[in-house]
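Hypothesis: this fold can be encoded by more than one sequence.
Test: take the structure tokens below, design a sequence, compare later.
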């Protein structure tokens, strides 16, 4: 089994993409299961095979600890790690090729807490990758795009597993807008020029400094545009995972 964690900021479309990708895998005869790791999810656009809500309920956490939604989310994130062995026991009853893991809506609850490291290690860190969804609204401006790339880099640094960057909800853009954003990632000189063209301000200066840091880290290079609504980019996610895990071979494992 190989684990694919779908991560991104709230509203970036993680659950919708997980559901669409699972359907695409089913349609192509590729066996996969879905784990929901969001204890606060009200409704999901897929039927999870394993659901953290069976062991951790946000409503119960709020009542038991007398917390509001935000505080309860933090406690629930830690409770997930405490219950991870139960989840692993259930996971071991499955024989599948891919495990699609839908992470909590708020990025910081998964990426920046110690509980996430416990979960990833328990599920086998060496057989895992991230799909990082960049919010299309944030990415429309050069500075916003740089901010999204900074978040992506921090998440990868924090979790220490390979990452695939995707531009989510690309159907929201005109074709030329998508191409422009993609060019920022594929050719850092284009992004550099667009940052220079912005009004001279403190925000632009910060954006330039962040850009230089990202460029020195080798962040720029490849990104996929995806749309769960239009089924765009789903084969590319599969190809990237095959390349990472199996060297591009269509493994039957």
């Amino acid at each position: 089994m190989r684990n694919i964690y779908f991560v991104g900021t709230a509203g970036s479309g993680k659950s919708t993409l997980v559901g669409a990708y699972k359907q695409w895998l089913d349609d192509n005869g590729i066996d996969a299961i879905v784990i929901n790791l969001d204890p606060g999810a009200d409704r999901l656009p897929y039927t999870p095979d394993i659901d953290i809500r069976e062991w951790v309920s946000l409503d119960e956490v709020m009542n038991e600890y007398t917390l509001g939604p935000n505080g309860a989310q933090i406690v629930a994130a830690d409770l997930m790690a405490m219950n991870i062995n139960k989840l692993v026991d259930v996971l071991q009853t499955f024989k599948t090729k891919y495990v699609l893991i839908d992470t909590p809506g708020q990025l910081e609850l998964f990426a920046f807490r110690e509980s996430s490291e416990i979960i990833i290690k328990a599920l086998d860190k060496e057989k895992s990758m991230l799909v990082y969804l960049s919010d299309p609204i944030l990415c429309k401006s050069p500075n916003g795009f740089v901010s999204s790339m900074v978040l992506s880099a921090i998440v990868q640094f924090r979790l220490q597993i390979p990452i695939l960057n995707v531009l989510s909800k690309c159907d929201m853009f005109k074709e030329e807008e998508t191409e422009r954003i993609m060019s920022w990632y594929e050719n850092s000189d284009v992004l550099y020029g667009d940052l220079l063209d912005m009004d001279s301000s403190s925000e632009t200066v910060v954006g330039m400094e962040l850009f230089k840091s990202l460029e020195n880290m080798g962040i720029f290079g490849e990104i996929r545009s995806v749309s769960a609504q239009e089924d765009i980019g789903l084969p590319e996610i599969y190809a990237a995972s095959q390349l990472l895990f199996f060297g591009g071979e269509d493994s039957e494992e």
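The longest helix spans residues 142-159. The first strand starts at residue 2 and ends at 8.
Hypothesis status: open.
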